Amino acid sequence: MEYLLAVVEEGSFTRAAQRLSVSQPALSHQIRALERTVGHPLLERLPDAVRLTPMGRAYLPHAVAALHSVEEARHVGRPRSDLERIGLRIAALYSVALGIIPPAVLAWRRLYPDANVELLEYGNSGDLANLMALGGADVAVSAAPLHWDGPVRVLGSEDLVVVLAADDPVAAGGRQKISLTELAGRPWVLYAPDNGLAAVVAQACSSAGFIARPAVRTHHTSTAVHLAAAGLGPALVPRNMIETDFGGVLLDPDPPVRRKLVAFTTTAEVPHISAFIDILAENGAVRSRRRGAAGPAGAAEAAPQ
C-alpha cells in the first residue's frame, strides 16, 4: 500500500521508485501484485502520467487508513512528551490545498512548532468523506459532503473567478466583471468528472443558459489556471489559489459564482484540531479579500465577500 500511495502522490513510477529507493521494475511488480490481490486495476498508466482508476479511488482511502494504523502501532509504548504526540492529518480538495491551507498550516505551526503535519489531497468531497470515515485524517476541508454525520463547521464562501489570457479581447478596457453568457460560444477549460469543481462549473454555466463545451479537461485546478491563461479557453477557478503573477487576467462572474467551504471531523473537539479549524475560519476569508489578480493593466481588487 505504501507503494501505491507513493505512485499516486508522485504521479510517476519513476519518481515514486526514487522516493522509495527501489528499482522501477520492483515497484511495478509490487503494484501488479496488489492489483491481483484486489482483483481490479488500481492505476491507469498513461503516456505521460499515472492516475487512479475508479476502483483505485475507492481503494485508496482504505490504504491510507491502513498505513496510518501501522504507523501508530509502531509508536505504541514509546515514551513521548505530550507535544510529541500531537500531529495533524489534513485532508483537503486540490484547490483548497493550494489556497487557504498553506497560510493556515503556517499559523498553526506557530502554536505547535514541533508537531507533525501531513496533507492529503483529493479531487472531491465524497473521497474526503470516505477517507475521514475510515480514520485516515483528523480534519477535512472541502465543499460540504452530501452525507456526513460528524461535526461540521462552515468556514465561509469561496469566490470563483473567470481566468482568461492576458490578451483576450473581452478583458480589454480594464473591466472587472463578466457575464458567463458572453463566453457561451467558446470552448472552455473544464475539469475532469472526479474533480469536485466540475459540478460547480456545470451548474454555473447552466444557470447562465448554456452547456460549456470543452477545449480540454484537466484533473488539477492549478493546471486549469495555466491552460486558461495560455488562451485555450475560459476557466472558473477559486480566487484563493491564484497567484498575483500567474500571467493571465481575472474577471468576476456577474452574478457571482461561489461555493461554501466547511471543515469536518469525526470526533468531538480536540484542542489542536479545533485550533486549526479556528485559524482556517479566521484567515481564509481574509486571504480571499486581499488577493488580487494580475492582468495586462496590473492588479484588480478582489470583490468583498
From TrEMBL:
UniProt-listed Pfam families: HTH_1 (PF00126), LysR_substrate (PF03466)
Alphabetized SUPFAM superfamilies for the sequence: Periplasmic binding protein-like II, Winged helix' DNA-binding domain
GO MF assignments: DNA binding; DNA-binding transcription factor activity
GO-annotated cellular components: protein-DNA complex
InterPro entries, alphabetized: LysR_HTH_N, LysR_subst-bd, WH-like_DNA-bd_sf, WH_DNA-bd_sf
Keywords of this entry: DNA-binding, Transcription, Transcription regulation
Domain HTH lysR-type span(s) in chain numbering: 1-53
Family from the record: Belongs to the LysR transcriptional regulatory family.
Name the record gives this protein: DNA-binding transcriptional LysR family regulator
Originating species: Actinoallomurus bryophytorum
